[in-house]
Design goal:
Largest sheet: 8 strands, parallel, barrel
Strand order of the largest sheet: 1-2-3-4-5-6-7-8
Helix content: 40-55%
Bound molecules: 3-methyl-2-oxobutanoic acid
Length: 263
């Protein structure tokens, strides 16, 4: 069954948890879709996860469109959400709408994600044009320089209050869902209870309406330590290294190719 903004809202109402994972390429997107994930997020985390940038700030529209196109060629059922990269929605609502429309018209996404509660006019304009927008509060990685690092947000009473207000603003603007990143569980619970749209957590505890993680992290593809909120469901980096080492040694020894691989 295809995921839509409507089906996600129904999942919240019925208490069925929403699942979301990132993909930046066609085979990964196909695997996620075949596994039954509800949302495939083409995150701007592609910048640090795949492209070798230090953070998500340098990621461009062209890079996001390129990866979103690859993902949309594979996905049949999941909702495809593309991250709007840094400075693609901040300048003015008109250019934000133009950039959002490119993800839908050129790249095959079903909606876009925008960080923060500052650019409400841009968010409204995009939604008015018929493009679903997912909000993103808590730790917003595009603001890492301002936030002073990747740390839990909303710990103080004032910060918590501002986050709840921001979430209400995003709902009022018409967002179909929001991501809450690195937020104390009880604050995320409060936000999820306050909003009627689904709240999807990443490092925001069990009370959210769903969970999102970076696929490369849960598969252990980076060969690096992962942050506390990630659970590694597989450790594929050493497995891939083992396979590559076997190839190298078999080529060097002459064991590969065998007659079964030859014509
Ligand atoms: O870019 C990304 O992958 C994200 C998720 C981790 C929420 O924004």
């Amino acid at each position: 069954m295809k995921t839509t903004t409507h089906s996600l809202r129904e999942m919240k109402v019925s208490g069925k948890k929403i699942t979301a994972l990132t993909a930046y390429d066609c085979p990964t997107a196909r695997m996620l879709d075949e596994s039954g994930v509800d949302i495939v997020l083409v995150g701007d985390s592609v910048g640090n996860v795949l492209l070798g940038y230090e953070n998500t700030i340098p990621v461009t529209m062209d890079e996001m469109l390129h990866h979103t196109k690859a993902v949309s060629r594979a996905v049949k059922n999941a909702m495809i959400i593309a991250d709007m990269p840094f400075m693609s929605y901040q300048l003015d609502p008109g250019s934000a709408l133009y950039n959002a429309s490119r993800f839908i018209k050129e790249a095959g996404a079903h909606g876009v994600k925008i960080e923060g509660d500052i650019y409400i006019d841009a968010i409204k304009k995009i939604i008015e044009a018929g493009i679903p927008v997912m909000g993103h509060l808590g730790l917003t990685p595009q603001l890492v320089n301002q936030l002073g690092g990747y740390r839990v947000q909303g710990r103080s009473a004032n910060e918590a209050k501002a986050m709840i207000e921001g979430a209400k603003q995003l709902e009022k603007a018409g967002c179909f869902s929001i991501v809450l990143e690195m937020v104390p569980s009880l604050l995320a619970k409060k936000v999820a209870e306050t909003l009627s749209i689904p709240v999807i957590g990443i490092g925001a505890g069990v009370y959210c309406d769903g969970q999102v993680l970076v696929t490369n992290d849960i598969l252990g593809l980076s060969g690096k330590a992962v942050t506390r909120f990630v659970k590694k469901y597989a450790d594929l980096y050493p497995e891939m290294k083992r396979a590559v080492s076997s190839f190298i040694s078999e080529v060097r020894s002459g064991a590969f190719p065998g007659s079964e691989h030859s014509f």
